[in-house]
Amino acid sequence: MAEAEHGIGTPDVDEEAGAPAERTRGPRRIAALLAVAIVAYLLDLGSKMLVVAELEHRDPIVLIEGVLKFEAVRNPGAAFGFGEAFTVVFTVIAAAVIVVIIRLARKLYSAPWAVALGLLLGGALGNLTDRIFRAPGVFEGAVVDFIAPAHFAVFNLADSAIVCGGFLIVILSFKGLDPDGTVHKD
Predict the structure, then answer these.
(1) Are strands 68-75 and 143-149 parallel, antiparallel or unpaired?
(2) d(CA 180, CA 26)
(3) Which of 2, 7, 102, 177 is the most exposed place for a label (fewest CB within 10 A)?
(4) How wide is the angle at C-alpha 37 spanned by C-alphas 143 and 77, nearest 5°?
(5) Is 159 a catalytic residue?
(6) pLDDT per position as a tens digit, 31-80
(7) Would you say the pTM of this structure is higher than 0.85?
(8) Which one from 12, 44, 130, 159 is the annotated catalytic residue?
(9) Hey, how many other C-beta atoms are within 10 angstroms of the C-beta on 11?
(10) Catalytic position from the list 44, 130, 145, 180
């Protein structure tokens, strides 16, 4: 009886819903992951549609002279234009990443991990959409890139989401936070 009074041996309770926290935290984190992924995907898709409609086959838009411009580029390869002959391989890798994230989501109890995985998922879906539906054909499509900083590769919002998600995962890993919400010290 004394244990129950002090909270020892009793499950955490979500104060708002009155339900055990384990049952509500997981779905909330999955909802957060999906919300971040959808926002990242839609921003990427919308920006690429705008670039194809308004910028492709036109002069670049200079935002800051010598520093940043928007320039429509079709990239059949990976980052920095490497691997143009491996478009199908990149398509398979992106699909595999999506499957891994979906499988990992079932064990997700960490809000920061939900954001990180949501960014990765949204970015992977954005570039996978290009690879499947853009010319020259299914699984061989070139990704639409348009953000062109001086002396750097041209990229898109999906690439930015992937890099930010990956960076966040590295930080979370160094801090010892696991996707299931546990913290470990190494």
Answers:
(1) antiparallel
(2) 9
(3) 2
(4) 20
(5) yes
(6) 999 999 999 999 999 999 999 999 999 999 999 999 999 999 999 877 66
(7) no
(8) 159
(9) 11
(10) 145
